[in-house]
Structure formats: structure tokens, C-alpha cells
């Protein structure tokens, strides 16, 4: 049983030896993400002052132009990873192409690539609702010492060596896994330190919350419609509660703690749904499985999907085991 009073820094050092490949490189990488998270947290917390300090596109008092927060978050994460020379490549939801990092030590000696959604749910910023950062880490498949290639990024989710998210909510939390369970750390803003607050996080086997944008209901497949009707039916422990923030990280986080299912199905207006396989679904699916949950595209495991392009979208269903299994029954019946 993990003790709760340790800092993220201490936790990373203590757990380094349990990583699959423990050269210290992955620890340094997670440390770099921790640092960038604190910087972005500071910026996100100031978002409400935008009317006073200026909106995106305006020029601030020092003559610098204000940036949109998602662009800023993207820059902060990329800059931190570049400066620390800790990865060989980065792919971001905010960038069309992947970025090759030229490490100074003996040309490209680093073996990890990071895929990141720097600020997910950013449409929520204007209204003071939680947003998040999602990250995913793989070992490169091309030889160390050569520039990264597309195939280093287009790996199946099951190949991830670590994944996590930061939720900028009522408290800021960093939640991640390196393949040995999921642990959550809460930022003490006064000290700028993350503390282990949620050791060994697990989805409850069964849940009572369903999270979906029901405004799209008419466009969903019959299997999804039937499952939603099942959630709403008065029978046994149902009807379930509907909760949808519209911020994947927050919806996932709540469901992991309380028990629930998150759904972003495909529809007649969005052929593959909305969420991106590499930046959103794979890392969340990895965390879900590490936390005893399930993540699927409605029929099969998300982590088994062979990616074909960086910005590929997939339908996404994720959460408490029994709820996702029930959804699968409805999907199979209508397939
Ligand atoms: P984004 O990457 O453009 O921020 O979009 C992803 C977000 C998720 O966080 C959220 O679950 C979903 O979009 C909400 O979409 P919708 O408004 O269509 O329900
Ligand atoms: Mg996103």
C-alpha cells in the first residue's frame, strides 16, 4: 500500500527501478512534464483575468501579443521537452506534423517520443470550467541515433510505456501510469509541489454515471441509442445519472473516481466521432485499463487499433467494466 504523504518527485525516484526499461530517462521525462504542467497551470489560473489583461490577439502592456491558451500550452510543453533534451520526437494535437528533436549528445540518443494534447476541452476556458492536458509516451521503433520517423508515432496504444493527464480543476492534479497502476498527485499551489493524494486509482467495477453529448442523440447508431435508453430506464439501480462536462479529462477523472461510462460515439454527422486516437483515446484507454476499466470503439479494444495517421479520430467508450460490457451487448445486437 502506497503512503500518501510523498511528493511526485519522491515517487518518481522511488519507482524508477520498477519501470520496464530503467535507465532514468523515463523518470526525467516525467519530471519535465511535471514542470511544464506547473507552468501551464499558472497560465490557466490567470485565464479569468483575460478581460483585465487582454484577450487573445490583443497586445499586452509590455507590447507582447496575447496568445490563446491552447497555443501557449502547446509551446510550453514542447519548449520544456526540447530544452531538457529528453525526447527524440513530439507529436501534438496542435501541430500538423511531428517534431524531430536534435539532441546534442551524440545525435539523437534519446529513445522516447511524446504525443500530447496540450489543452483539451479548451472551449471551456471562457466559462471557467476545467480543462486538461493529455500525454502519451512510447519507445521509438527506429534505431537510436537516427531522426524519428512517422512509424515511431503510429504505434498501437498497447505499446505505450506511460500515459497520463493533468486536470486543471478546483485543484490541479497530475494522474499517470507507467504500467504499474494509476496514481494521482494534487498540486499544493502555495508550494508548487504535487503530493500523492490518490494512490492506486481504480474504476469501480459498476457505476451509475453516463457521460455523453445527448444533443447528438438522433445521429447515433441504434446500439448507442438503445444503451442510453437502458441508462434512463427505471429498473434496478437505474435510471443512472447523466453528467457531461464536455472536457474529456474531467469527465474521465470523475468517472474513474465515482464509477461511470464516457461515450463519444460515431454519428451520422461525424463518421469516426470526434476524439483523436493518438492524443486522446490511447492515453485515456491505457489509464482506464491500468485502473481496471475498459476502453473500446464500441466493438473492440482501443489499444489494439493500428493507427494510420497522426490525427486519426475514433469512436470512444470508456469506463467502469460492467457498464462498458453492457454497452457492448447493445452494440453487438445492432451490428
Ligand atoms: P478539443 O480537443 O477540441 O478540446 O475537443 C475534445 C473535447 C473533449 O474534451 C470533450 O469530451 C469533447 O471535445 C466534447 O465535444 P462536444 O462538445 O462535441 O460534446
Ligand atoms: Mg483535444
What does this structure look like?
InterPro entries: FBPase_C_dom, FBPase_class-1, FBPase_N, FBPtase, Fructose_bisphosphatase_AS. It comes from Maribacter vaceletii. Keywords: Carbohydrate metabolism, Cytoplasm, Hydrolase, Magnesium, Metal-binding. This protein folds into 2 domains: 8-198, Fructose-1,6-Bisphosphatase, Chain A, domain 1 (2-Layer Sandwich), CATH 3.30.540; 209-333, D-Maltodextrin-Binding Protein, domain 2 (3-Layer(aba) Sandwich), CATH 3.40.190.80. The chain contains 9 helices and 13 strands. The chain has helices at residues 8-15, 25-45, 50-53, 69-83, 150-153, 222-232, 248-258, 277-290, 321-333; strands at residues 89-92, 99-100, 112-120, 131-139, 162-168, 172-177, 182-188, 193-201, 209-211, 241-242, 260-264, 293-296, 316-320. α2 packs antiparallel against α4 (69-83). The model has no long low-confidence stretch (mean pLDDT 91). Residues 93, 117, 120, 280 line the site of magnesium ion.
What are the SSEs and their pairings?
Elements: H1 8-15, H2 25-45, H3 50-53, H4 69-83, E1 89-92, E2 99-100, E3 112-120, E4 131-139, H5 150-153, E5 162-168, E6 172-177, E7 182-188, E8 193-201, E9 209-211, H6 222-232, E10 241-242, H7 248-258, E11 260-264, H8 277-290, E12 293-296, E13 316-320, H9 321-333
Parallel strand pairs: 1-3, 9-10, 9-11
Antiparallel strand pairs: 1-2, 3-4, 4-5, 5-6, 6-7, 7-8, 11-13, 12-13
Amino acid at each position: 500500500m502506497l503512503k500518501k504523504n510523498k511528493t511526485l518527485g519522491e515517487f518518481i525516484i522511488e519507482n524508477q527501478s520498477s519501470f520496464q526499461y530503467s535507465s532514468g530517462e523515463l523518470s526525467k521525462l516525467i519530471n519535465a512534464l511535471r514542470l511544464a504542467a506547473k507552468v501551464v497551470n499558472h497560465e490557466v489560473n490567470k485565464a479569468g483575468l483575460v478581460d483585465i489583461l487582454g484577450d487573445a490577439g490583443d497586445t499586452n502592456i509590455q507590447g507582447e501579443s496575447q496568445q490563446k491558451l491552447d497555443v501557449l500550452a502547446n509551446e510550453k510543453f514542447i519548449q520544456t521537452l526540447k530544452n531538457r533534451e529528453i525526447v527524440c520526437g513530439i507529436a501534438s494535437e496542435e501541430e500538423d506534423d511531428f517534431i524531430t528533436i536534435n539532441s546534442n549528445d551524440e545525435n539523437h540518443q534519446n529513445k522516447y517520443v511524446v504525443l500530447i494534447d496540450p489543452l483539451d476541452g479548451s472551449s471551456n476556458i471562457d466559462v471557467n470550467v476545467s480543462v486538461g492536458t493529455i500525454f502519451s509516451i512510447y519507445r521509438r521503433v527506429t534505431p537510436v541515433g537516427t531522426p524519428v520517423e512517422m512509424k515511431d508515432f503510429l504505434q498501437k496504444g498497447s505499446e505505450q510505456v506511460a500515459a497520463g493527464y493533468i486536470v486543471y480543476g478546483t485543484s490541479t492534479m497530475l494522474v499517470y501510469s507507467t504500467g504499474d497502476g494509476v496514481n494521482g498527485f494534487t498540486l499544493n499551489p502555495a508550494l508548487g509541489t504535487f503530493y500523492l493524494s490518490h494512490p492506486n486509482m481504480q474504476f469501480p467495477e459498476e457505476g451509475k454515471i453516463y457521460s455523453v453529448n445527448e444533443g447528438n442523440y438522433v445521429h447515433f447508431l441504434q446500439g448507442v441509442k438503445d444503451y442510453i435508453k437502458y441508462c434512463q430506464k427505471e429498473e434496478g439501480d437505474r435510471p443512472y445519472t447523466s453528467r457531461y462536462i464536455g472536457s474529456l479529462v474531467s469527465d474521465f477523472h470523475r468517472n474513474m473516481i465515482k464509477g461511470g461510462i464516457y461515450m463519444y460515439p460515431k454519428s451520422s454527422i461525424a463518421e469516426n466521432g470526434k476524439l483523436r486516437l493518438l492524443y486522446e483515446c490511447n492515453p485515456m484507454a491505457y489509464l482506464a485499463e491500468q485502473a481496471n476499466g475498459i476502453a473500446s470503439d464500441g466493438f473492440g479494444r482501443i489499444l489494439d487499433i493500428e493507427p494510420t495517421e497522426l490525427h486519426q479520430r475514433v469512436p470512444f467508450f470508456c469506463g467502469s467494466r460492467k457498464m462498458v460490457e453492457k454497452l457492448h451487448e447493445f452494440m453487438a445486437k445492432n451490428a
